[in-house]
Amino acid sequence: MQNALQGYQVYQRGKYETASPHRLISMLYEGAIRFAARGAEAIGRQDHAEAHQSLVRAQAIVAELIGCLNEEQGGDLARRLRLLYLYMHDRLVEANLRKQREPADEVVRLLADIKQAWDEIGKGSPLERATS
To answer: What angle do CA 78, 79, 81 make, to 5 degrees?
Structure first.
């Protein structure tokens, strides 16, 4: 069993190490969406420990997305995305502190919209096609 777990961990690590920069951002979106949705569902079940853990993970991923922005290259779009990410981070904190589902659900919707646009942009990239 231990060998199977180690093999899986190596596979998972390789998935991230070989992904294109575009795919890595998409994976961050997927993770943030997954954990924000899991947190919202846990709030609905009144499982406060699971809600807290999931929402904190979603917050960390959104913080990582903020850190990935390059405002020099991205200009106004990067600045606007930064503000939107900060808003989403605040909403996740609010959902966690107040144990309210709606702020987390809002973040899931926002992230899903951004991810969809991001994935569409990547479809035209030769690097993305080569690594998909």
So the answer is: 65
CA angle 68, 73, 74 (to 5 degrees): 70
Give this prediction's pTM: 0.83
pLDDT in tens, 7-29: 434 444 555 567 898 999 999 99
In the structure encoding, which two tokens stand for residue 114, read together? Answer: 């951004």
Q: Which amino acid is at 16?
A: Y
Give the architecture-level CATH label for domain 26-104.
Answer: Up-down Bundle (1.20)
Domain locations in the chain as residue ranges? 26-104
Say how far apart CA 18 and CA 132 lie, in whole Å.
10
Distance separating alpha carbons of residues 108 and 34, to the nearest angstrom: 8
